[in-house]
């Protein structure tokens, strides 16, 4: 396919305005600016080398098109976008430029424009830039907002061809109507728009639809906030939890987005020229695109194969059957397998007959049809209880059926029931079909509520209908941050009715069970003990906040369940249990080699950093310990159990709690003793955890010995130069000393969020890090230490409140210029302000308040580390707010 792309020569700049084709740099380039051009044969490459843009010829065609493809998979069928799909360039004379009017333009050899981006709402700009972003999006914007999709003049993601990629948004707007966002190629060799389109029908509950020449060919079934109800294979949690989302964005409109769990996997959806939509994933080892999903397959997936009021069943003989109470409209056609006529009612509904004359006619009722793909064209009423949904249907003679679906609401069908399928192997929803009373058996008629109870004996027919009480259905569809709500019965079945065999363990707040959803996805269910102080609202608020946390090193909360006293949290299942299970078991310890342990330490640190700093909320975990670090199948650590987490406002740093929770041994002293918790408390626990990982011993196992705890013991060995004796014998030999020492150091420099280290220059002339490092040992009492290549070189001795004990002649000037206070931030600021000679202060976690008197020397700004230094200034030097001290971020204190 990619005839003509020279993979070595990627792109050279050619000036449009000069004819001097000098040997300009031919390195990979990801953008072109105004006046630059891209010739046939040259390509742009996104900075991560994932996507490539250039001219190509599809299949046997010799015409040239401008397109974007996956760079790694270039030889395979991997085009994701084509610009001039209607008007190819006949030869290799095509050129892409950012033209004088700021638009992207393709011209042929005669200078004729064959394609233009035609950006309309465009700021007149002399510095327009087109960037091939790492997402595969070609973005035209001003130079100073390069790559900013929100301020782009034009972007290929808003003008897609046949491919839906992660990060692309598809508008779902009932006012706009059907959105035929993607159109197929005409044939394998011709990218011009073909017969098929793929997009969203937003009416009622949105669905994905494939159209053929404008007629429906396939639909996904309605979106219930979790899955497309007509694609039961989507019940695999990973599929929907990390994939599709219906989100209301800043512009007030709803969009479908798709973000797979594994961002590094190459994934895409494509509507093929043959009308088949496929989900594809690049298989690097086999160098082909694996097809994960195809629609429509032959048979019942074809739109409305059986006509109205009929059910298509792949395993049925015949495939098409009229719904109960209905018969084929044209029997001879039906018997010759022409189902287009559909079915008609045996007995008219009571409301359809002249009810005034026919007194005594039996009342209409409903028969439920289980495991169905719900019919097309539903009206949706939100915030309606199952009973009133039923009443609503009975009150309106046009209503032919109703269904209560969690995440959608009350669905009512008024016209014919079309495109109904029966899912034999589980999945699907319950459709309540309205029938005349005489068509209903006696037992069925007396049944009031058709909402199904799950029957454990028929787990094959397990429905993904997660119907729950109506008051918590409201709004759940429109608020994507809300967590999926599971039905208690569903969870009960998934966990085999909370059987003892499924019990994974007992946490402080209740037992945890292993479960399995109908799609085969494994889950962990935490059943909170009924006597929990929290109200339902607080419970829901808290978990919806936690649901917003997404990080690979945090255990993912998949959903929850509230019904009566019953409160449950549903998490992804971690096959390798928790860290303590390996770490402290002499038989399993050895399976955690140093490389694994180091990865685990890194992972926990990343997760914790995300909680503390990177997530929009500031979250303090408060119970970080080995048993709360779960391990996935690849032994990646995930922090779990946010039961005690507290969420902090933006600048709130510490809080008081009247109840000390947490686990002794891991708790920072100030928290355990005073109930004062902060980010520091977590970092302290992290330090303990790191030492446990290095030593393979529980912090608490030191209680009986001479040492207070692991940190104390570590500190002692370290100061005797025997730090490596700490290391778990099963990993000691094989591990790089440097890493081990760094981790021990990390555990001991506790509790500080940031390394407090000074690195000496390599030599007087070379500022790169040398072999000497200086630090405060953040231990009580603190001391200053100099290391040479990670080994202690010199120690100041502990600080005795006046001087370092190993420096008896420490001069008094020094003493007066450095004061160490064991106090809090605000107190430190106050102390500095109260002392006229204080020129600056810094509050360092674990050390306390540092104050400078006189000159502040040897400062260095570090991009990702260091401490906040507060420099005292006259209030006139400060902003309008008259702050008295001004922070200088990220400085190292000299
Ligand atoms: C350029 O114009 C000539 C004459 O009209 C035509 O024969 C040729 O095909 C054109 N080339 C392209 C690339 O359009
Ligand atoms: C741009 O506008 C021109 C003239 O109106 C039109 O012929 C062309 O099809 C447009 N191109 C695109 C990509 O919409
Ligand atoms: C754009 O460039 C033209 C010609 O170089 C110049 O006259 C004009 O002032 C520039 N406009 C802006 C906004 O810089
Ligand atoms: C675009 O921005 C970059 C970085 O901000 C700058 O180096 C470059 O000179 C700018 N180019 C133009 C054409 O203004
Ligand atoms: C597209 O539709 C046209 C006419 O409806 C038909 O002739 C052609 O075969 C169709 N192409 C494909 C690929 O189905
Ligand atoms: C993510 O995808 C990449 C590339 O396909 C693969 O190498 C890696 O193992 C995947 N990671 C996970 C966790 O699936
Ligand atoms: C690639 O294909 C092989 C063989 O089908 C399969 O075992 C492997 O899991 C695939 N790799 C990915 C990343 O899907
Ligand atoms: C099937 O029946 C419809 C009328 O219900 C008719 O129009 C159509 O031609 C029939 N199709 C075939 C293949 O006989
Ligand atoms: C310094 O930190 C404060 C709060 O931590 C932040 O609001 C501010 O933007 C930072 N300033 C710089 C220059 O990074």
Describe this structure in words.
- Helix 8 packs antiparallel against helix 10 (679-695) and helix 10 (679-695) packs antiparallel against helix 13.
- This protein has 15 helices and 55 strands.
- The strands form 14 sheets. An 8-stranded mixed beta sheet has the order 26-25-33-29-34-31-32-30, with helices on one face. Strands 50-52-51-54-55-53 form a 6-stranded antiparallel beta sheet. The protein has a 5-stranded antiparallel beta sheet with strand order 1-3-8-9-10, with no helix packed on it.
- It folds into 6 domains: 2-158, Bulb-type lectin domain (Agglutinin, subunit A); 167-297, no CATH class; 301-449, no CATH class; 467-572, Phosphorylase Kinase, domain 1 (2-Layer Sandwich), CATH 3.30.200.20; 579-725, Transferase(Phosphotransferase), domain 1 (Orthogonal Bundle), CATH 1.10.510.10; 822-893, no CATH class.
- The protein has 894 residues and is α+β, with helices and mostly antiparallel strands.
- It starts with 13 loop residues before the first strand and ends with a strand.
- Bound molecules: 2-acetamido-2-deoxy-beta-D-glucopyranose (NAG) (9 copies).
């Amino acid at each position: 396919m990619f005839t003509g792309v020279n993979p070595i020569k990627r792109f050279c700049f050619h000036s449009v305005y000069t004819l001097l084709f000098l040997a300009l740099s031919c390195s990979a380039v990801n953008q072109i600016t105004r006046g630059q051009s891209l010739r046939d044969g040259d390509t742009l490459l996104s900075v991560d080398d994932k996507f490539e843009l250039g001219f190509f010829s599809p299949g046997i065609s010799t015409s040239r098109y401008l397109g974007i493809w996956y760079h790694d998979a270039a030889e395979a069928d991997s085009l994701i976008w084509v610009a001039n799909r209607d008007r190819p360039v006949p030869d290799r004379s095509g050129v892409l430029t950012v033209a004088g009017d700021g638009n992207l333009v393709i011209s042929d050899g005669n200078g004729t424009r064959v394609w233009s981006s035609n950006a309309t709402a465009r700021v007149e700009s002399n510095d327009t830039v087109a960037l091939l972003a790492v997402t595969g999006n070609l973005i035209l914007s001003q130079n100073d907002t390069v790559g900013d999709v929100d301020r782009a003049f034009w972007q290929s993601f808003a003008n897609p061809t046949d491919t839906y990629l992660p990060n692309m948004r598809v508008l779902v707007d009932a006012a706009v109507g059907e959105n035929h966002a993607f159109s197929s190629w005409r044939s394998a060799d011709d990218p011009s728009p073909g017969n098929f389109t793929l997009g969203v029908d937003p009416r009622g509950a949105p669905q994905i639809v494939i159209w053929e020449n404008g007629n429906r060919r396939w639909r996904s079934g309605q979106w219930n906030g979790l899955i497309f109800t007509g694609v039961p294979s989507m019940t695999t949690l990973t599929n929907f939890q990390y994939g599709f989302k219906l989100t209301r964005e800043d512009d007030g409109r709803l969009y479908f987005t798709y973000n797979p769990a594994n961002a590094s996997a190459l994934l895409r959806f494509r509507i093929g020229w043959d009308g088949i939509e496929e989900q594809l994933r690049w298989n690097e080892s086999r160098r082909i695109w694996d097809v994960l999903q195809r629609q429509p397959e032959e048979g019942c997936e074809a739109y409305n194969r059986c006509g109205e009021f009929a059910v298509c069943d792949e395993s049925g003989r015949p495939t098409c059957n009229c719904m109960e109470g209905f018969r084929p409209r044209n029997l001879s056609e039906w018997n010759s397998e022409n189902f287009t006529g559909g079915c008609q009612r045996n007995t008219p509904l009571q409301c359809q007959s002249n009810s005034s004359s026919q007194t005594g006619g039996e009342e209409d009722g409903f028969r439920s049809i289980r495991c169905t793909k719900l019919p097309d064209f539903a009206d949706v009423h939100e915030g309606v209880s199952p009973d009133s949904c039923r009443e609503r249907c009975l009150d309106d003679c046009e209503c032919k059926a109703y269904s209560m679906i969690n995440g959608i609401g009350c669905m009512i069908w008024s016209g014919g029931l079309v495109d109904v399928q029966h899912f034999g192997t589980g999945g699907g929803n319950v459709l309540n079909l309205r029938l005349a009373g005489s068509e209903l058996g006696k037992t069925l008629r007396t049944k009031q509520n058709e909402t199904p109870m799950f029957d454990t004996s028929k787990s094959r027919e397990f429905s993904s209908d997660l119907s729950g009480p109506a008051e918590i259905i409201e709004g759940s569809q429109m608020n994507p941050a809300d967590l999926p709500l599971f039905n208690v019965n569903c969870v009960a079945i998934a966990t085999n009715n909370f059987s003892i065999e499924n019990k994974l363990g007992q946490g402080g707040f209740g037992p945890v069970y292993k479960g399995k959803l109908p799609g085969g996805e494994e889950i962990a269910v935490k059943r909170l003990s009924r006597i929990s102080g929290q109200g339902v609202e607080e419970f829901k608020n808290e978990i919806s906040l936690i649901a917003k946390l997404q990080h690979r090193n945090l255990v993912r909360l998949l959903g929850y369940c509230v019904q009566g006293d019953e409160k449950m949290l549903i998490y992804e299942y971690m096959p390798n249990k928790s860290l303590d299970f390996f770490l402290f078991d002499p038989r399993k310890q050895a399976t955690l080699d140093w490389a694994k342990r180091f990865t685990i330490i890194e992972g926990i640190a990343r997760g914790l950093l995300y909680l503390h700093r990177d997530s929009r909320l500031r979250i303090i975990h408060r119970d970080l310990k080995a048993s709360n670090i779960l391990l996935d199948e690849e032994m990646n650590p995930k922090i779990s159990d946010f039961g005690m987490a507290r969420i902090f406002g933006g600048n709130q740093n510490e809080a008081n709690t009247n109840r000390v929770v947490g686990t002794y041994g891991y708790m920072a002293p100030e928290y355990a003793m005073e109930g004062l918790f902060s980010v520091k408390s977590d970092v302290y626990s992290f330090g303990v955890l790191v030492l446990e990982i290095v030593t393979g011993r529980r912090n608490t196992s030191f209680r009986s010995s001479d040492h207070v705890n692991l940190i104390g013991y570590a500190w002692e060995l370290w100061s005797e130069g025997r730090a490596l004796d700490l290391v778990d014998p099963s990993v000691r030999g094989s591990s790089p000393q440097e890493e081990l020492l760094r981790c021990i150091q990390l555990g001991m420099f506790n509790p500080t969020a940031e390394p407090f280290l000074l690195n000496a220059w390599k030599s007087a002339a070379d500022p790169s890090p040398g072999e000497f490092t200086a630090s405060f040992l953040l231990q009580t009492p603190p001391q200053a230490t100099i290391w040479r290549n990670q080994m202690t070189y010199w120690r100041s001795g502990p600080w005795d409140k006046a001087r370092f004990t190993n420096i008896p002649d420490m001069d008094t000037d020094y003493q007066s210029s450095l004061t160490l206070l064991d106090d809090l931030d605000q107190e430190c600021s106050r102390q500095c302000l109260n002392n006229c000679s204080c020129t600056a202060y810094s509050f360092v976690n674990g050390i306390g308040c540092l104050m400078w008197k006189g000159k502040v020397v040897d400062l260095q700004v570090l991009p990702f580390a260091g401490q906040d230094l507060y420099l005292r200034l006259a209030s006139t030097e400060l902003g309008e707010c008259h702050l008295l001290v001004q922070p200088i971020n990220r400085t190292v204190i000299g």
